[in-house]
Structure formats: C-alpha cells, structure tokens
Amino acid sequence: MKRQRVSNGNPMEEIVGFSRAVRVGPYISIGGTAPVGPDGKTVGVGDVTVQAERCFEIATDALERAGSGWHDVVRTRIILTDIDLWREVIEVRKAYCREAMPVDTIMAVSRFVNPEWLVEIEVDAVVADG
Question: Would the pTM count as exceeding 0.90?
C-alpha cells in the first residue's frame, strides 16, 4: 500500500522524525495536534475553547491534505491537562463530528511538552470506498 506523509512544516518533524499525519491506503492517523498558530506560538493561552478550536483546525487541514475529511473520521482522542475542561472541548468537537459520529476517548495527562497547552487532539480516519 502507498504511504503518504502529511507535513505542516514544523521544524521538529525532521529533527525527531514525526509527521502531522500519515495515510497508508485508506487509513489516516493524525498525531496529537497542539494549539499552535502559524507563527509557532500557543494560541488561546489559558482558554481551552480557543485552543481546542485551533487543534481541530489543524486536524481538518491534515485530513484534507490526506484526501479526506471529517466524514471519514472513526476515532478522536481528547487529551487534557485538566479533565474538568472536557465539556468545553466536546462543545467544539460537536461542530466537526456530528455527521460521522466517531468513537471518542477523553483523558487527562499531567502536562504537555509546552506547559501553555491545555489540550491536544488526535484523529483517526478510514477513507470509504467510492
């Protein structure tokens, strides 16, 4: 099967060897999308809703560049530093996932690489035939 790497230009991709997304055949995996703007800085510091919106925007771009969209998404993972913020992120998620209704996991971690980040989102998709 053909392997397609989707980059978003993050210089760390080459340094540590990761991709924003990878598509192999019909399968697409999008790694933890952090709330980072085009300038490389954290967006919405202290605001989980703004951060979640940015994460979903990044995931949308990766899906589209891999030849897909939210209609093909089968799983999302919401990773938070404060589990009590899950409802705010789910409100953002609804705008993207109502049609496909993918499975979801919500979990908390002690922190991310950048302590300004409150949330990361992971997405898996399977491109349907036809």
Answer: yes
